[in-house]
Amino acid sequence: MANRGTVRPSGNFNSSADAEALRKAMRGLGTDEETILQLLIARSNAQRQEIKTVYKTLFGKDLVDDLKGELGGKFETLIVSLMTPPVAYDVTALRNAIKGAGTDEKVLVEILASRTPQQVRTIIAAYRQEYDDDLEEDISGDTSGHFKRLLVILLQANRQSGIQFDSIENDAQVLFQAGELKFGTEEQTFVTILGNRSPEHLRKVFDAYMKMSGYEMEETIKRETSGNLRALLLAVVKCARSVPTYFAETLYHSMKGAGTDDDTLIRVMVTRSEVDLLDIRAEFRKLFACSLHSMIKGDTGGDLRKALLLLCGGDDA
Q1: Which of 89, 176, 232, 265 is most deeply buried (CB count within 10 A of its CB)?
Q2: What pLDDT is attached to residue 1?
Q3: Whole-angstrom Cα distance, residue 172 to residue 203?
């Protein structure tokens, strides 16, 4: 996959010089947050891992522990997130979503709806290695109903590939009959079809469904389902249409209205920074009356704002 991220590897990278600079930024009175954020955001995740290794070799200390000791609040959360390898980040986020106080369904939905089957398989293996637990069992034990069933289907990471041209019409028809044409809804039909077909196949099904029923798939899901299942079905549909659009909407809703969902804002900005944040920015500008840059600027403050704006990488005013 072409990197459509805002963060690129640094061209003249010197891990020892970076480790020294970070050490200096944290020594003595006060911490030089500006140097820390400027340096780390200008390096790729792989380069940050090299810096971490060299830091321990030079100083006999763990870089992430030192950063945690010097920084605080949501800025610390962001910097520690940047220092975490992508798979480990997803694994930790899922673990915390299940094992924290109550279940954070939002995180389960976001990660499992947006990651590719290959990524999901890698996450499951890394989760087992890290915690000696089965991710599917842990998620099953913490969720219920059709919401649980769809999560379990996504965890199988067995989506069909390509477009099954002979079943497009039938899939659309079956969904129409299970929802709009029925008193009550057969959620299982939505779960099975939306969980197992490829994104490109589903896009054709959505077009056929629109012609047949006069409704967008999202409209039907909003009318026919509720709660966590509704959120997950909508995420799956949106990601089948366009992952960058899904994340543009997720970022918008994390900042819209009173208060900011900093955790979601940080999670999306970090996890997409080397994947598709340029595309997310473009979609954001198309969908909303402002740029991602301007919304972050108006909604955050301090070092967190500086770091997020650097991650954003530009203003599409």
Answers
A1: 232
A2: 52
A3: 11
